[in-house]
Known about the structure:
Oligomer: single chain
Order of helices and strands: EEEHEEEEEEHEEEHHEHEHEHE
Bound molecules: nicotinamide-adenine-dinucleotide, zinc ion
Radius of gyration: 20 Å
Number of strands: 16
CATH superfamily of the largest domain: Medium-chain alcohol dehydrogenases, catalytic domain
Number of helices: 7
Shape: globular
Strand order of the largest sheet: 11-3-7-8-12
CATH architecture of the largest domain: Alpha-Beta Complex
Amino acid sequence: MKALVLEKQLELNLRDIDLPTEVGPDDVKIKMHTVGICGSDIHYYEHGKIGQWHVNAPMVLGHEGSGTVIAVGKNETILKEGDRVCIEPQVVSKKSKEYKLGMYNYDQKVKFWATPPIHGCLTPEVVFPGDMVFKIPNNLSYAEGAMVEPLAVGMQGVTKAKIKPGQIGLVMGCGPIGLVTGLAALAGGCSKVYIADILAEKLKMCDHYPNLIPVDLSKENLSERIMDETNGWGVDRFF
Ligand SMILES: NC(=O)c1ccc[n+]([C@@H]2O[C@H](COP(=O)([O-])OP(=O)(O)OC[C@H]3O[C@@H](n4cnc5c(N)ncnc54)[C@H](O)[C@@H]3O)[C@@H](O)[C@H]2O)c1
Ligand SMILES: [Zn+2]
């Protein structure tokens, strides 16, 4: 199967590679439609590693994906052929301590797409456990479906922050993750969310989200501005 393969640092090829194609009883097969490029894909390309994870063998990139189910295993009861889906790109052990404590995302042995040595989803078809695959509603585009994974990062931060209605939030950094965090904070009850960055071009994205208030740190004093606009109360939640 063709895939976007990171051979090693700074060497990418679109080429054939052997990937699993057999659908196990708990698996589904997905025809990929849209895959986002994450900061981590770029890190692996530019630096060949992130922290303890080194690209020591060719690896397919991509973990923010959406597509259509084209086959289901015999145990699958929810998904069926033709369903439009997005994917939580990790396989965890149901026997792990973290899984049993209800925080499987902390499983130390997690197999996460496009994290060496696990292949990602920048390929026409993937086989994946059905319980990590979610239907998306018809009014959501495939591109929006692919953004569910990064959106979940913001949702998790905001969930932990236990916002009360009307609170004021501040997000530092207006990259994709800052934006999804700011949007989640608004959805979670903040009446206003400031988002600060040192680069004006990153803050331009706020033009699309009128409820996020950009603060350009190259020109403005953040604390003076916020104190001025909140009667000296400051913000309630900082991300
Ligand atoms: N927990 C997760 O699952 C998860 C997933 C994705 C990303 N992340 C992390 O989230 C962070 C943001 O990711 P991203 O993809 O949005 O990155 P990004 O590089 O696109 O955005 C970061 C932004 O921070 C700005 N910035 C840098 N220094 C600053 C400073 N001193 N003050 C204010 N702004 C500053 C940069 O200009 C940039 O716009 C990264 O640390 C990334 O590793 C976590
Ligand atoms: Zn990502």
